[in-house]
Amino acid sequence: MTESGTPPAGDGTPPPAPSPAEPRILLAGQYIRDLSFENPNAPGSLRVDVQPQVQISVQVNAAQRAPNLYEASLQINATAKRGEETVFVVELVYGGLFNFENIPANSLQALCLIECPRLLFPFARRIVADVTRDGGFPPLLMEPVDFALLYRRRLASAAAAGQPSASS
Asked: Minimum mean pLDDT among 21-30, 47-56, 100-109: which range?
């Protein structure tokens, strides 16, 4: 019988070597930074004779707040119009604080601008739907957003402008 620091497994094979620390993203908190709903022509805007045309824009921003702590935010603007008449306007800035553990530095920007907004989006989508419903309209149900595509476009715009990166 030999002595060692780690006993062999029951079948005589040594135990697996400890794996390096796993990368983790932890959501530390989420919040509404800004929310605005305007129904400028109420109650006349509530008529249902003509479906309004809705324009939606989504922007993503991120910033480091402390070591390993990053803020990601979604800025959602939705405007509904019937011809020239504004039916409603929704503006939402929804943010989250994320702790990153064991994340390589070269992955931080993509995580902040793709993965973090992807985690926040369902909550922001629900807020937009609820506020439009509470404003007297059918809930505005936003389609899922391809945050990877937004990120690639952001990188392309930064490259075209001669900027070194697309970080905020």
From this structure: 47-56
Domain 24-159 is found in CATH 3.90.230.10: no
pLDDT at 2: 45
Residue 168 confidence (pLDDT): 46
90 closest CA partner among 50, 139, 46: 139
Q: Are 103 and 70 in contact (CB under 8 A)?
A: no
For residue 159, the SS3 value is: helix
Q: In the structure, what pLDDT confidence band is assigned to residue 134 with cuts at 50, 70 and 90?
A: very high
| Domain positions in the chain | 24-159
Instruction: Supply 14's token pair.
Output: 């040594």
Cis peptide leading into residue 43 (ω within 30°): yes
Residue 145 one-letter amino acid: V
Sign of CA dihedral 146, 148, 150, 153: negative
Contact yes or no for 88/137 (Cβ under 8 A): yes
CA 35/CA 123 separation, integer angstroms: 13
